[in-house]
Amino acid sequence: MYKIYKNKVFKTKIGKLIKFANKKSKFLKKFGEIYFNNIKISKKKNDWILHKKYQCIILVISGKIKFTLKSKRKIKNLNLNNKVILKIDPGTWFKFSSRTKSSLFVNLIDGVHDPKETMRKKID
């Protein structure tokens, strides 16, 4: 369904350095594409998303984001910041929403985007 990895955040003289991945990262099978999602706080519910064959590697860059994951009738809510990396396995339904005025996260997938590979479902 998912796995959480600790992430390294280094304080520097001018701010923070947030490490995401390197070729030795346990969660990185192969590189496909990277997306940056900038989301604003909203009362509106997001659609559920499922990747049939790609895993998602997610790191919150700024803000705080609630991820809800659903697999085989289990539902898990995770409130994430930039101290952890979330790996979502293929076949896991998920949705997300910002818990701060604006949030930014990066999503690395292990394939090139294919609309036929992704499923979306409206929330009741």
Helix content: under 10%
SSE-based structural type: mainly beta
**SSE run:** EEEEEEEEEEEE
How many strand elements? 12
Mean pLDDT: 88
Task: Give the biggest beta sheet.
Answer: 5 strands, antiparallel
Strand order of the largest sheet: 1-9-6-11-4
Relative strand content: over 45%
User: Overall 3D geometry?
Assistant: globular
Low confidence ranges:
none
Query: Ends: how far apart?
Result: 22 Å
The number of domains: 1
CATH architecture: Sandwich
Given this structure, which CATH class is correct?
Mainly Beta
Individual helix count: 0
Question: What is the CATH topology?
Answer: Jelly Rolls
C-alpha Rg (nearest Å): 14 Å
Q: What name goes with the CATH superfamily?
A: Jelly Rolls
Commentary on this structure:
It contains no helices and twelve strands. With 124 residues, the protein is mainly β. It has one domain (2-119): Jelly Rolls (Sandwich), CATH 2.60.120.10. Strands 1-9-6-11-4 form a five-stranded antiparallel beta sheet, with no helix packed on it. A three-stranded antiparallel beta sheet has the order 8-7-10, with no helix packed on it. A two-stranded antiparallel sheet has the order 2-3. A hairpin with a 2-residue loop joins β2 (9-12) and β3 (15-18). It is globular, with a radius of gyration of 14 Å. The two termini are 22 Å apart.
